[in-house]
Amino acid sequence: MSTYSAPLRDMQFVLRELAGIEQVGKLPGYEEATPDTVDAILEEAGKFAAGALSPINGSGDHEGAKWHDSKVTMPAGFKEAYRQFVENGWNGIGCEPEYGGQGMPKVVVAAVQEMWKASNMAFSLCPLLTTGAIEAITLNGSPELKATYLPKMIEGSWTGTMNLTEPQAGSDLALVRSRAVPQGDGTYKVFGQKIFITYGEHDMTDNIIHLVLARTPDAPEGVKGISLFVVPKFLLNADGSPGARNDVRCVSIEHKLGIHASPTCVMAYGDNGGAIGYLVGKENEGLKYMFVMMNAARFAVGLEGVAIADRAYQRALEYARERIQGRDLADGSGPVPIIRHPDIRRMLMLMKSQAEAMRALAYVVAAAHDAAARHPDAEERKRNQAFVDLMIPVVKGWSTETGIEVASLGVQIHGGMGFIEETGAAQYLRDARITTIYEGTTGIQANDLIGRKIAREGGATIKAVIGIMKQVEEALAKQPGEEFAAIHAGFSRGVQALAEAATHVATNFSQDIKGVHVGAVPFLRLMGIVSGGWQMARAALVAQRQLGSGAGDDGFYKAKISTARFFADHLLSQAPGLAATVVRGGAGALAVPEEAL
Amino acid sequence: MSTYSAPLRDMQFVLRELAGIEQVGKLPGYEEATPDTVDAILEEAGKFAAGALSPINGSGDHEGAKWHDSKVTMPAGFKEAYRQFVENGWNGIGCEPEYGGQGMPKVVVAAVQEMWKASNMAFSLCPLLTTGAIEAITLNGSPELKATYLPKMIEGSWTGTMNLTEPQAGSDLALVRSRAVPQGDGTYKVFGQKIFITYGEHDMTDNIIHLVLARTPDAPEGVKGISLFVVPKFLLNADGSPGARNDVRCVSIEHKLGIHASPTCVMAYGDNGGAIGYLVGKENEGLKYMFVMMNAARFAVGLEGVAIADRAYQRALEYARERIQGRDLADGSGPVPIIRHPDIRRMLMLMKSQAEAMRALAYVVAAAHDAAARHPDAEERKRNQAFVDLMIPVVKGWSTETGIEVASLGVQIHGGMGFIEETGAAQYLRDARITTIYEGTTGIQANDLIGRKIAREGGATIKAVIGIMKQVEEALAKQPGEEFAAIHAGFSRGVQALAEAATHVATNFSQDIKGVHVGAVPFLRLMGIVSGGWQMARAALVAQRQLGSGAGDDGFYKAKISTARFFADHLLSQAPGLAATVVRGGAGALAVPEEAL
Fold first, then answer.
1. Structural domain containing residue B478
2. How far apart are CA B522 and CA B537, in angstroms?
3. How much of chain A is in helix, strand and coil states, percent to nearest 5?
């Protein structure tokens, strides 16, 4: 059995050297996030992930959540693990202290969440959805709604869900049909069917707070007529304890490719007269509220890509060290562990380098989010927010697409054993496969990136980011040695390719909207690779400095430089080709008539 | 329900215009393969695939093969489908007429097999393994062995298996430990455990003929001491009918990621005194016999990649036409079918163009195989054999890696529904995932390609192939219009990249054996893309000629040219980056010490 081991050394390196945890700890309200406190949190989280979540990941997948007569039974161990999770105070780590949260900065929460996701992605979805519901109520709810629901939800005693999708309304929420009828007493009766509701029903807590998108009777058509409601599974007694059952039922759960332990529910609202719901904020502004939360949710799913990649790497590395097969190519000795074979090494390095690059980018974006929220200087807040907005689709789209590829490499390293479910490698591939779909497919992320985040502002933010990348390029040029020469060469080509593609997008977006959109996903991939290469280059520069300082840990820093070089040779090398596809690939993709496909 | 529809139009185009079916039909012994006969065969095969195999693909996956007390029960419908398969004479279509086969050329068999694989990959593995066993006996068995087993196996009344792998001996057959002890009467007693035995046990026929690798008592160590034995499940009576049970048992079957209907068996030989076995050919030459069959098996698995890609494309295309979601980007109309969205189009074109390119390459290689076997001119036979040997690892490695990617795109096009098992898209991804592993992983194919197929002969064959590609490049340059300009530009860069990378491999193979091997898989991918681009370029040239001729079917030919252009812009664009990784990527991949990974 392979047990998850939190990559604390790399997490700490990224937090300190790349994401600037010290600066984050100086932001107003984040003073408690001192480096020592953060280290202690990460260490404890790592223990919980390894000790409580990792052991039930494989069994949870095998057993799956079970539905019977509107009730969902979680796999063995999940209820107890969730109880411990709440008891240890993990649920509210990033939430507002006003309602019982610990108020840790997002960059710290990101590292902690990576551990939940890596050790047990299916489990981690429960607190993830609760966090989304908490955020919706925190940002938009009335004081009464907040006081009623937030303390229990932040504590984790009640979980939350997000009910957006309907059979005819997936990516396109304009098509939502669920109805909410005002009762004259301030409450509404909610009717409709929702699908793909993560943890819509389970047996781990004594209440579930559903957030539901629905239309009021006179609402305008399309996205401007959608409102958001709180619909608790159990209505509350006067003392705030769960009382009468509300008119909401889990009709069935899905039989899915992965995340078997996470119940994906079909929810029926109002089959017996109407589910009592409470309006969040104002009528018809539901989608606006969703958009505010979307960044957080998309970032969190991006982290799933990072996490699965790291977990798949750990397992494949263990196997590659243990499995004896074939002879050493150079000296003919053996049989040897397969880690000795160059192609296995290449695959392990693809896994390692991409996991590290994705982690670095995600944490850097998380730290920018903290600065955007709390920096005393308004200009700094604005600058950081623009960076976060630009990068969220990249963290989401690139990390999840790469997470799938890395999980698939993990299967490949296991050879025939990788195809056998008991081995565990295949689960990561199956679990990862949802991450490029939910919270907006990669195509939707890419459209958001080239449209709202680049073309709409004429490429201003991305040009600024490319400017910062060029400073790193200059610093690389000054470093001696073959490794830095390779990093510099690869990164230079990458930045040039990104600049060329970004200019193409910004220039041609309006006059060739479909052609430019053909290049959206290749552009997102290009931007992910170059952004990851940027962070690996920064990491290599830091490592070089540390190596010279005699501070010790030379092995780690040398490996970091070599890993950055690998990333340049094997990933950044793809950048010019991706730019070529972005610039030239539009017409050919649209030339074949629909009926001739 | 999506039903498989054989892509007859494209198959016929490839067979006639690219693979030269007319020339194949003129080879001695293949005279019956006239274009009309071939058309009739393909049409009938398409009907059988659609009518008998496609309907039980999803149910077979869901139900799976079941093991109980040494017996395996196949999913509902499989036994009946197999009976029809045999009754219709499909099993022996490519086998020697001397023992009841139809002796069709490999290029025809390839098209037919693509249909079995596309409509029901799990089913298709049974005749695939039987074919392998037939070939082993045909090429190396004594006249008596042939007469005893071949008629029933070619007919399909008995199936065959290949028993190579043991727990400690996967890719490395030098580690095989199974024993075969001569009994003095010409027979042997076989002892040992074999794993990953496809269709090692099932209930579709009244005998199963196992081919087993084992060591005789005085055999030398390593691969030079392995012999091949026939071990029937039931020993034969004097009249040739199955009689007493032999000492071989299926101990269990694996719980796998995919191909659930194909029983993957753990086989125990000789637990009760020894399984009676009959030597094939000579002692200690078993591995040599295996190598001869390996090309055929690897080619067949490569076809699985083609087949799954096409099947996943068909299903995704149907969904993309039906699913209504979102608005047209250009004119705002809608909601529209998602096929209208540029990123969905891009994904569909990635699926379509790669399926067509892989099919074309595979059939061209199959036709070369036929010429290598039957051409009256020895030089032509030799030239064709060298081409086949070079291309087999590309067909196997590139088509299977691409098959997985295409199946994953199919899931993505389905959005959330793609993650739900009932939809059927996920099955292709799960089934495809084994294809890059069995019959030699992609790493093993790539090592074979750069080592035995390129470096060992100083790159002679690949240089000749690149020469032929350059002729196509010249022909492209003469075509008018934007589409051919794009095809020419992409293909030129691709050929140049391939030439550069091949020279690097041939030049540095000996002095930097590990560094060059780091680039093996990127090189294989490069060669696959450029070879696929070569076939698409040839196809576009043919299509242009046909368009000018007024022969009709303009829609098909126009789509072919546009598809070739897409392939150039979106796939061939990757070639220079892959070459860069091959040339520069060795050192970085090996720099991090094993213990620092």
1. 458-589
2. 22
3. 60, 10, 25
Query: Residue A509 and residue A425: Cα distance in Å, rounded?
Result: 41
Torsion of CA B2, B6, B8, B11, to 10 degrees: 120
- Using a CB–CB cutoff of 8 Å, tell me whether B28 touches chain A: no
> Domain for residue A359, yes or no?
no
Give dist(CA B430, CA A408) in Å, integer. 11
Tokens representing A78? 């999940």
Can you tell me the ipTM of this complex? 0.98
Q: Based on the domain organization, do A494 and A530 belong to the same domain? A: yes
Do A563 and A478 reside in the same domain of the chain? yes
What is the total residue count of chain B? 597
229-268 of B, contacting A, C-beta below 8 A: 254-258
- Catalytic residue status for A474: no
> Are B128 and B165 within one domain?
no
Taking the C-alpha atoms of residue A246 and residue B414, their distance in angstroms, rounded to an integer, is 33
Chain segment A392-439, per-residue pLDDT in tens: 999 999 999 999 999 999 999 999 999 999 999 999 999 999 999 999
Nearest chain B residue (CA) to A431: B419
Host H or E run for residue B249:
strand B248-253
Q: CA gyration radius for chain B? A: 24
Q: Which of B342, B404, B429 sits opposite A589 (nearest CB)?
A: B342
Residue B164 and residue B231 in contact, taking contact as beta carbons nearer than 8 Å: no
**Mean per-residue pLDDT, A463-485:** 98
Q: Is residue B134 part of a domain?
A: yes
CATH number for the domain harbouring residue B103: 1.10.540.10
User: Per-residue pLDDT for B1 more than 80?
Assistant: no
**Are residues A78 and A175 both part of a single domain?**
no
How many distinct structural domains can be found in chain B?
A: 3
Question: Do residues B13 and B118 share a domain?
Answer: yes
Same domain? For A163 and A280 the reply is yes
Rounded Cα–Cα distance for residues A508 and A194 (Å): 39
Strand residues in A21-81 grouped as ranges (E): 66-68, 71-73
Last residue of a domain, one of A95, A120, A155: A155
Contact yes or no for B346 and A521 at CB 8 A = yes
Mean pLDDT of A488-500: 98
Strand A227-232, strand B71-73: pairing: unpaired
With the CA atoms of B473, B479, B485 and B491 taken in that order, what torsion angle do they form, in degrees rounded to the nearest 10? Answer: -20
SS (H, E, C) A277-318: EEEECCCCCHHHHHHHHHHHHHHHHHHHHHHHHHHHHHHHHH
Q: Is B483 helix (H, G, I), strand (E, B) or coil?
A: helix
CATH number (domain holding residue A255): 2.40.110.20
Model pLDDT for residues B433-469, shown as the tens digit of each residue:
999 999 999 999 999 999 999 999 999 999 999 999 9
Which of A215-251 are b and which e, b meaning 16 or more Cβ less than 10 Å from the residue's Cβ?
bbeebeeebebbbbbbbbbbbbeeeeebeeebbbbbb
Same domain, A167 and A149: no
pLDDT tens profile B28-57: 999 999 999 999 999 999 999 999 999 999
CA distance A225 to B361: 53
Q: Are B274 and B186 within one domain?
A: yes
Which of A139, A155, A171 terminates a domain? The answer is A155
Q: How far apart are the first and last CA of chain A?
A: 47
Q: How many CB atoms lie within 10 A of CB A134?
A: 29
Instruction: Test B594 with A321 for CB contact under 8 angstroms.
Output: yes
Which residues partner with B252 through β-bridges? B266
Kindly indicate the confidence band of residue B477, based on its pLDDT and cuts at 50, 70 and 90: very high
CB contact under 8 A, B171 and A562: no
B30 lies in a domain?
A: yes
Q: Is residue B432 part of a domain?
A: no
Q: In a 3-state reduction of DSSP, which class is residue B67?
A: strand
- A420 beta partners: B256
Chain pair A-B, CB pairs under 8 angstroms:
288
